[in-house]
């Protein structure tokens, strides 16, 4: 099996780097072919979500406002009001009702979107499981924000990490461009006949959701072609009555959950297929993970979301100093891209996994626990340590990342890990 | 009784200033009324617990009011307060909530607490929207109003919260606005004294969101906040007061100034003594108010006005207004007392 790994150069090219394409020759070629049709728009992450949803011809949107997700909902209601999209838009009385309404709509065959953050996602918790259990291909933008108490509105990923076992496909985007690209792809992936599962596209609160960036947007007709109207075999339809959500006890519940797991695991394959098609129309390449400098790296940082941008810029600096450092950015967190990850860490001596959420009392943060458990199977000798950072919106600085890389280089040299979990950026 | 200074109240009752409220917000006025009500009743500060959820109104007690405060999740203040009250029924338990917090996401708790008649005083600040998150549509937003999430006009009818509370079994129910600040203080006192579930709704101004919400035209005499207070006064009536007969409202059709000129001309031609002015009204926007000492003379010319001034509608003094006052005030068995009676009975203790 050939694995699909997206590589990004760490040497800055002269032509502006617009896309995650393999090498500079295809980039130039793409610059003349596909990029020409695309318009550059100034969008923050929330607006990028709304625009992508608008182009995806969504039938039903149900949502409840919460900072920092509000802009998504407001833009969408404007699009509806202006007649730019032909969607039913309902502002319900809570997130619990929002996702419940989404399930109802999805079961009737509609393409459905919602968005939330933090407490809203926590309130949806029981409905998250209903969504995946009923195999509803709903796409949701989760604008990651810390959880109460104490009250905090800023970025960390405790919200999604707290619901990571809910059976949803979970994707983390690095910037507004990725947010836009992932939302469009997410509908294709989730509605795939073999998948039929909900997808959460995560974007870091404020850092992405409220930061204006250049975003290349596809022409409407390209998105329409890429994303035809939803087709589903099973739906609520009075002419062919079906029961949804029945009682499954010791007899069949287990089989159903096993099937659900199988569908979820297939997602990475479908995601790669969809990514290839998307590359053709956009010139931007996606997959389960993206690497930078991993060909010859001794040490690497594995992270998700906006943090990758900071890590990449530090990496460039250290590479210029001749230090062999690398970056693994996970796009796909669930299902966990096990094989893809193995394929890029073969020659690595030390790996740092960065968690922007605490798993209270666990050996590591959630992401690091996953990585550590699979290393046990195939690569026991790789030294690993976990960095917890950014809780409640605490910024992670380039100099902190540089220190982390240097710690890892030291470990690669000595083979000794002193602290398996480091809390970076906290006053102690 | 000696006159108490502002610093008297501030020093005793407020521990954190300045408040985080925007200039002109109604929440400061509500905090003020609450402080004065507590002072006048002489409630022991040690025995007050204020609970609030999420929203601007939640900041009225937390962290400003100088007693125990508990700031919890969105919509859930009442269940948190219920827990505290059940274990410690000596507490004067007060919930501060917003229209979104208390009647939207937490609406279920509101009706059940009322049904149970648990001794909690709920002060609900109704600013007709989710103000903190940027003015989105709420279950109290009036029909047709445009918000960020209802740019085509709100399609849903708002709750009449006092009716809802009355039906659910609350034993004290009142509604005031921030214009009626003395009445509000008296109602908060009565609510605190009532042994049972008390509900006080306060229609309040949010100069940040309501300008767009109510489509208000800024005036050169009043700041936005005072303008909204005037609108509250003009859009409400006090239920037990006699109906005022000496004025009417005229809803214009088309240009307001044109209607105003036409109405004035007709009234003058018929030698009616009148005063005409422009007022903001909830539901109607900016309309004309005509006051006449001799209202009979106006009524006579009304047909002419209707025929020739091309106006929309004539409203009598109370029509289309929101009723204020005390809707329910009764005594009925309180929940935590009943609980204690049962456990005392089980133990064979007389109460
Ligand atoms: C579960 C959950 N959903 C959404 C939010 C976001 N949120 C914070 S305040 C608020 C609205 C508050 O409106 P209201 O209760 O009317 O209070 P106001 O700010 O108008 O006083 C919302 C939706 C949240 N904190 N928690
Ligand atoms: Mg409100």
CATH topology of the largest domain in chain A: Rossmann fold
Largest sheet of chain B: 8 strands, mixed
The level 1 CATH classification of the largest domain in chain B is: Alpha Beta
Give the terminus-to-terminus CA distance of chain A: 48 Å
Total DSSP E strands of chain B: 12
**First-residue to last-residue Cα separation of chain B:** 38 Å
Could you tell me the mean pLDDT of chain B?
A: 94
**Element pattern of chain A in H and E:** EHEHEHEHEHHEHEHEEHHEEHEEHEHEHE
Measured as a percent range, the helix fraction of chain B is 25-40%
Structural class by sheet pairing and helices of chain A: alpha/beta
Q: What is the count of helical runs of chain B? A: 12
Which quaternary structure do these chains form?
heterodimer
Number of strands of chain A: 16
Strand content of chain B: 15-25%
The neighbouring-strand order within the major sheet of chain A is: 1-10-12-11-14-15-16
Whole-number radius of gyration of chain A? 21 Å
| Order of helix and strand elements from N to C terminus of chain B | HHEEHEHHEHEHEHHEEHEEHEEH
Structural class based on helices, strands and sheet pairing of chain B: alpha/beta
Question: How many domains make up the coordinates of chain B?
Answer: 2
Helices and strands, with pairings:
The complex is a heterodimer of chains A (428) and B (351).
Chain A: E1 6-8, H1 24-32, E2 39-43, H2 45-55, E3 60-63, H3 70-81, E4 88-91, H4 95-107, E5 112-116, H5 118-123, H6 125-133, E6 139-144, H7 158-162, E7 169-172, H8 176-191, E8 199-204, E9 213-217, H9 220-226, H10 253-282, E10 289-292, E11 299-304, H11 307-320, E12 325-330, E13 332-334, H12 338-344, E14 350-355, H13 366-378, E15 383-388, H14 398-414, E16 421-423
Parallel strand pairs in A: 1-10, 3-4, 3-5, 5-6, 6-8, 7-8, 11-12, 11-14, 14-15, 15-16
Antiparallel strand pairs in A: 2-9, 7-13, 10-12
Helix pairs in contact in A: 2-3, 2-8, 4-6, 8-10, 11-14
Chain B: H1 6-13, H2 27-41, E1 48-52, E2 68-71, H3 77-87, E3 92-98, H4 99-105, H5 107-116, E4 120-126, H6 161-168, E5 172-177, H7 181-193, E6 198-203, H8 210-213, H9 224-235, E7 236-238, E8 247-251, H10 256-269, E9 275-281, E10 285-291, H11 295-308, E11 313-315, E12 322-329, H12 335-346
Parallel strand pairs in B: 1-2, 1-3, 3-4, 4-6, 5-6, 7-12
Antiparallel strand pairs in B: 5-12, 8-10, 8-11, 9-10
Helix pairs in contact in B: 2-7, 4-5, 5-6, 10-11
The structure holds thiamine diphosphate and magnesium ion.
């Amino acid at each position: 099996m050939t694995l699909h790994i997206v590589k990004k150069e760490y040497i800055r090219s002269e032509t502006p780097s617009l896309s995650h394409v393999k090498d500079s020759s295809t980039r130039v070629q793409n610059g003349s072919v596909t990029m020409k049709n695309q318009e550059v728009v100034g969008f923050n992450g929330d607006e990028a979500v709304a625009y992508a949803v608008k182009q995806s011809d969504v039938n039903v949107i149900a949502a409840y406002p919460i900072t920092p997700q509000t802009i998504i909902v407001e833009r969408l209601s404007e699009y509806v009001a202006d007649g730019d999209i032909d969607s039913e838009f309902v502002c319900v009385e809570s997130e619990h009702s929002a996702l419940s309404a989404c399930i109802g709509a999805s079961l009737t065959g509609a393409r459905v979107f919602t968005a939330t953050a933090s407490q809203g996602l926590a309130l949806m918790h029981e409905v998250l499981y209903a969504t995946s259990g009923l195999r509803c291909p709903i796409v949701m933008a989760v604008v990651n924000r810390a959880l109460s108490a104490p009250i905090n509105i800023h970025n960390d990923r405790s919200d999604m990490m707290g619901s990571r076992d809910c059976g949803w496909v979970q994707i983390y985007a690095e910037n507004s461009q990725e947010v836009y690209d992932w939302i469009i792809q997410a509908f294709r992936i989730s509605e795939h006949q073999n998948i039929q599962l909900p997808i959460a596209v995560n974007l870091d609160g404020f850092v992405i959701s409220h930061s204006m960036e250049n975003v290349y947007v596809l022409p409407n007709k390209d998105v329409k072609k890429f994303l035809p109207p939803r087709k589903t075999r099973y739906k609520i339809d009075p002419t062919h009555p079906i029961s949804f959500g029945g009682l499954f006890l010791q007899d069949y519940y287990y089989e159903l959950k096993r099937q659900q797991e199988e569908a979820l695991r297939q997602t990475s394959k479908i995601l790669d297929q969809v990514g290839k098609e998307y590359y053709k129309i956009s010139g931007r390449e996606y997959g389960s993970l993206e690497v930078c400098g991993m060909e010859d790296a001794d040490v690497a940082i594995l992270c998700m979301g906006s943090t990758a941008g900071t890590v990449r810029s530090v990496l460039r600096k250290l590479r210029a100093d001749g230090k062999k450092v690398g970056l693994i950015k996970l796009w796909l967190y669930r299902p966990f891209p096990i094989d893809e990850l193995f394929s890029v860490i073969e020659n690595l001596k030390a790996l740092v996994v960065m968690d922007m959420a605490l798993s209270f009392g666990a050996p590591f943060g959630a992401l690091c626990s996953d990585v550590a458990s699979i290393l046990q199977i195939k690569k026991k000798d790789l030294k690993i340590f976990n960095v917890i950072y950014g809780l409640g919106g605490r910024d992670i600085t380039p100099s902190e990342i540089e220190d982390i890389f240097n710690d890892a280089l030291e470990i690669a040299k000595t083979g000794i890990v002193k602290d398996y979990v480091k809390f970076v950026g906290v006053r102690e | 009784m000696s006159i108490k200074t502002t610093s008297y109240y501030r020093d005793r009752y407020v521990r954190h200033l300045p408040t985080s409220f925007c200039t002109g917000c109604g929440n400061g006025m509500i905090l003020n009324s609450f402080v004065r009500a507590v002072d006048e009743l002489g409630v022991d500060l040690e025995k007050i617990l204020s609970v609030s959820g999420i929203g601007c109104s939640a900041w009225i007690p937390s962290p400003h009011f100088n007693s125990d405060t508990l700031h919890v999740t969105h919509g859930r203040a009442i269940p948190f307060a219920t827990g505290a009250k059940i274990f410690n029924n000596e507490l004067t338990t007060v919930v501060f909530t917003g229209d979104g917090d208390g009647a939207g996401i937490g609406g279920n708790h509101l009706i059940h607490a009322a049904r149970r008649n648990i001794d909690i005083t709920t002060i609900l600040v109704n600013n007709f929207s989710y103000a903190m998150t940027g003015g989105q549509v709420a279950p109290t937003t009036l029909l047709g109003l445009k918000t960020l999430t209802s740019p085509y006009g709100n399609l849903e009818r708002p709750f009449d919260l006092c009716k809802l509370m009355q039906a659910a079994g609350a034993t004290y129910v009142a509604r005031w606005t921030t214009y009626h600040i003395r009445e509000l203080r008296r109602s908060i006192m009565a609510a605190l004294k009532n042994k049972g579930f008390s509900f006080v709704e306060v229609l309040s101004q949010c100069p940040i969101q309501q300008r767009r919400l109510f489509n208000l035209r800024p005036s050169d005499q009043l700041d936005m906040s005072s303008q909204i207070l005037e609108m509250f006064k003009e859009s409400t009536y006090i239920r037990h007061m006699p109906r005022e007969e000496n004025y009417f409202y005229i809803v214009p059709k088309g240009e307001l100034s044109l209607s105003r000129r036409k109405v004035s001309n007709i009234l003058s031609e018929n030698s009616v003594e009148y005063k005409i002015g422009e007022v903001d009204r909830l539901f109607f926007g900016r309309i004309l108010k005509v006051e006449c000492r001799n209202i009979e003379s106006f009524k006579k010319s009304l047909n002419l006005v209707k025929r020739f001034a091309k106006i929309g509608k004539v409203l009598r003094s109370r029509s289309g207004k929101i009723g204020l006052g005390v809707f329910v005030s009764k005594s009925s068995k309180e929940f935590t007392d009943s609980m204690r009676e049962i456990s005392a009975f089980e133990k064979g203790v007389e109460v």
